[in-house]
Protein 1
Amino acid sequence: MSTATAPLSNKVLTARFGRVIQRDPLWMRAGLIGIAFLYLGVLVFLPLLLVLVAALGKGVAAYWAAITDSAALDAIKLTLFVSFSSVSLNLLFGLAAAWAITKFQFRGKGLLVTLIDVPFSVSPVVSGLIFVLLFGAQGWFGPWLQAHDIKIVFAWPSILLATTFVTFPFVARELIPLMQAQGNDQEQAAITLGANGWQTFRHVTFPNIRWGLIYALVLCNARAMGEFGAVSVVSGHIRGQTNTIPLHIETLYNEYSSSAAFSVASLLALFAFATLGMKALMERRLSREGGVRRLDTRHNNEDIFRSLE
Amino acid sequence: MRTTSSITLNHVYKHFGSFVALDDVTLDIQAGQLAAILGPSGSGKTTLLRTIAGLETQNRGSLYFGTEEITETSPRERNVGFVFQHYALFRHMTVLENIGFGLKVQRRKLGLSKKDIRDRAMRLLRTVRLEGLENRMPDELSGGQKQRVALARALAIEPKVLLLDEPFGALDAKVRKELRRWLRLFHEQMGITTVFVTHDQDEALEIADQIVIMNHGKIEQVGSPGEIYGQPANSFVEEFLDISENPVPANLLASRVASLPRSFAFGD
């Protein structure tokens, strides 16, 4: 006969389930952590550091001149304008798409979900060519656009269109699983309580998706600022007019002004770091809000009968 | 006592694709009654409740609250109190904000000040015996407490009818028994027409005035607990309630809380 079960010792656990995970030897832990750091160091940190070193290779004055050059300033302005606009558009359309997909039942929903992913699966170069085929001089709408003196390709509208297209999935992709997990109960509760559509969104849906949405916008912005392929096809590389920061960097590099190219590149990297910093802040905020709160059990169900005695 | 309505459904039919959820349902629930919709899962009982609230739209048939036709009325304007199975509390609002939500969104229509809303929400908080918890977040409450917040929130808009979807389904057995007794007493206090969905016959038997038994989208029988157990309309009712094996559920009928003395005092 066996005796009463005592708490299982580590020895017993080890015998039954093999190695206990926390018992990994020090050399293994140190080795794995070291490899992770080495890998990221060589692949991410070192190149970024080299960009900065190369940027400052000809001194701070040359660095400053490179990023305050009028063509560079125009590129910065264009990039900020395009990324801000495309993020705004994707906020609207991504929200609308996520809302439609998670709150309504309709035919063709599966197709819509698949279409949302197209910009991620198609090469950016192809995305750019789509717009040339549509709006270019030889394109579908080309003659009509020319007749009305509207310029899309080789002008900022096509850069905006291409960037918006390429970054479209970020918001919708982030929100769909979030909104699906939350279901419609809270919205329906709000409606039975007399809330209209806007009140339901403002007071119920939005607070529930707020941080997910901001997170998506941050990612969307990072990608919009750095987009190269699609923009390169539609922009025409006109200095001071249709060059975004990535295109300007390429132009400088091709002209063998590599230190100027690296200077502007370091600026783009700085924007990316600012974005990453915002994302980290969001995540901290998110985990704090989602954290388990203290549960007070003082107030039991028993006292609902207090009044009945 | 607040004004409450009877509920009438005339030949209501609802399908989801090829699945028939409500098949020619005609039903009359008198004002002030506590009715239970009882049936196995997939029998259409929740669809029936949601159709009364307007959260589902029937394909055919008409609905009335009292003499007022609500067939085409949006759920927003039906003035029903709906308690969801998993409460559907607003997670980012405090208990008090949850309860006051309906009043807040209808503030202009009802001509209420912020203080009026707060006062009414506090009064409801006392009615459901949750004083002191007004600043808690829903995540900090037990299941039974959440249920009562959901109930208070539904009652805040002074609904014509109160609809509860599996109100005790997510609670453990002990809390469940307490809460259903409490709901019965509460119902007698408020006098509001109340319909709740359940798959537990003991629950229906113990607290309902009227039981509606559903199967495959159809109503099999409507009647008081005594009538249904005394004269089951057909073999489905008999089998579903296990009447052949347990012919006289005398213990259950005797335990009906309706027969408790009515001399109790609620919050205010």
Protein 2
Amino acid sequence: MALITVRYFASIREKLGRSEDRLETAGGETVLGIWQRVSDGPLPPNTLVAVNQEYATPDARVQAGDEVAFFPPVTGG
Amino acid sequence: MTIRVQEAAFNPWEVLAAYELVAGERLAGQTGGAAVFVGTMRDFNQGQAVSAMTLEHYPGMTEAYLEKIRTEAHRRWELVDSLILHRVGPLKPGEPIVLVACWAAHRDAAFAACRYLIDELKTRAPFWKQEQTDSGLRWVDQNQS
């Protein structure tokens, strides 16, 4: 089965009420398309996305086995 | 050359003394200066008292980005060595959050690289602060300079 892992952090994790989803994919979906499958609203402004732990854009395409992450602007340091 | 993300509280000056003890031979002679930045938790933010904080991070991506920015700094400036240490988990006001240190032959490189590392860490490393205030928990939505 072709799966992707979708992870959520900080305020986005709290809003969705979970830290992770596993989705079946045929491959070739965009990050934005993944967001539309896991949430019932638009991608909040300023949301950052990562694919396989590298920053990406919402139009990036994802493949089976990828790890996609959604999180708010970072505030470390 | 060390990157560390840890829950345990640390004393930056003890960390540096211990690090120089181990790396001493490599640093001695070549190093003409070291620049150090220590970031500490305040007890106020955006006009409100803050009594505690929790730092969340993205394990794996955080370390990868710290390593990435450190590699960029070493490419850009002639550094002898560098160190980044960052807390995660629960913190209290006054506790150190982050330690950045750069050793170089000359001060310009040490200062510039240290500044680069803390600035890039704040904009690219996936950490998130949640503050406890009198009116409850709130996520910090953006860093101030």
